[in-house]
């Protein structure tokens, strides 16, 4: 799939909305088709676990998109090069998430208290997401970016789509590579939260990995679809906070006499929470536009429409 993506976008061009929508449909279709194959191959319970994890990861990736938009704006990454940065960012994300999945599953299977600790971490993360404003993504405060700039000679300019360039006879990292490092460092933080949340659904590393992979593979096209529309989903973060807290509670309850909650309940909570938060966001955006139009009309001397 990565090879298909590279071949289809081998020329640097601005990704328009129509192209992004088509590719989003392709990736979502691939993820759903894989879930149906799991259903036919292993039965309903693993398929429900996969779809629950896939929906959760897809929802959490919307938060990634918002941060990517801020980082691209901060570094003023040209539109035609953003897809290349996201491609390599996704490749790094797949590697980091695989490592987190393997390590997290081993911890949960071998250490009885790991579930309670991880559950508490997810509940705290959900609370933080609910009460925070816009995430602080200032690259100048990012430890990884600052360390990279100290270690690697950098040039504060773009040199086409190249990550390195020879400047004054010396090989230097371009600003495009610094932007990629910032995105990778930010995604590590998101990966910890999202992998911990999906491990609350199932510790089957195959299902966790594939759900993560299909959600992350569609992240680039999702960015180009939603980057300009994220303000319409202002209340989605409250839904994500609920899901993170629910995942944490699920992990804690699994270590008590209550035991693991049924998968159908997890799937129902994920679908219901996402539906409510997205619907709330859309209605709130419509009300804001309606109030703004009313104020504009009242300010006009003739009281007429905009």
What does this protein look like?
With 306 residues, the chain is mainly α. It is 74% helix and 3% strand. Strands 1-2 form a two-stranded antiparallel sheet. Helix 3 crosses helix 8, helix 4 runs parallel beside helix 7 and helix 4 (79-110) packs antiparallel against helix 8. The protein is globular, with a radius of gyration of 21 Å. The N and C termini lie far apart (47 Å). The mean pLDDT is 77.
Write the layout of secondary structure elements.
Blueprint: H1 2-8, H2 17-42, H3 44-75, H4 79-110, H5 114-131, H6 143-151, E1 164-167, E2 170-173, H7 175-199, H8 205-217, H9 219-226, H10 236-254, H11 263-299
Antiparallel strand pairs: 1-2
Descriptive terms for the model:
306 residues; 74% helix; single chain; mainly alpha; 2 strands; 11 helices; two-stranded antiparallel ribbon
Biggest sheet details: 2 strands, antiparallel
Number of E-type strands: 2
Mean of pLDDT: 77
Residues in β-strands, percent: under 5%
User: What is the topology, as strand order, of the major beta sheet?
Assistant: 1-2
Oligomer: single chain
């Amino acid at each position: 799939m990565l090879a298909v993506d590279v071949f289809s976008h081998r020329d640097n061009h601005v990704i328009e909305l129509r192209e992004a929508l088509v590719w989003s449909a392709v990736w979502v279709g691939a993820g759903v088709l894989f879930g149906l194959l799991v259903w036919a191959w292993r039965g309903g319970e693993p398929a429900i676990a996969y779809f629950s994890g896939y929906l959760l990861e897809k929802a959490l990736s919307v938060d990634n998109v918002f941060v990517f938009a801020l980082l691209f704006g901060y570094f003023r990454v040209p539109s035609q090069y953003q897809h290349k940065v996201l491609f390599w960012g996704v490749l790094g994300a797949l590697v980091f998430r695989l490592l987190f999945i393997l390590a997290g599953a081993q911890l949960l299977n071998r250490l009885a208290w790991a579930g309670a600790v991880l559950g508490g971490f997810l509940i705290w993360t959900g609370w933080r997401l609910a009460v925070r404003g816009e995430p602080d993504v200032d690259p100048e405060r990012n430890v990884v970016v600052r360390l990279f700039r100290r270690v690697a000679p950098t040039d504060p300019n773009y040199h086409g789509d190249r990550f390195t360039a020879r400047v004054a006879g010396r090989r230097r990292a371009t600003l495009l590579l610094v932007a990629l490092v910032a995105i990778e460092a930010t995604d590590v933080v998101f990966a910890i939260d999202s992998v911990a949340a999906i491990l609350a659904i199932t510790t089957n590393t195959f299902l966790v990995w594939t759900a993560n992979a299909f959600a992350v593979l569609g992240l680039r096209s999702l960015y180009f679809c939603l980057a300009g529309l994220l303000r319409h989903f202002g209340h989605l973060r409250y839904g994500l906070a609920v899901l993170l807290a629910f995942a944490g509670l699920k992990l804690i309850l699994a270590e008590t006499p209550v035991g693991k909650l049924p998968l159908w309940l997890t799937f129902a909570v994920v679908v219901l929470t996402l539906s409510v938060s997205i619907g709330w966001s859309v209605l709130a955006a419509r009300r804001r536009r309606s109030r703004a139009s009313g104020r504009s009309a009242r300010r006009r001397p003739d009281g007429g429409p905009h």
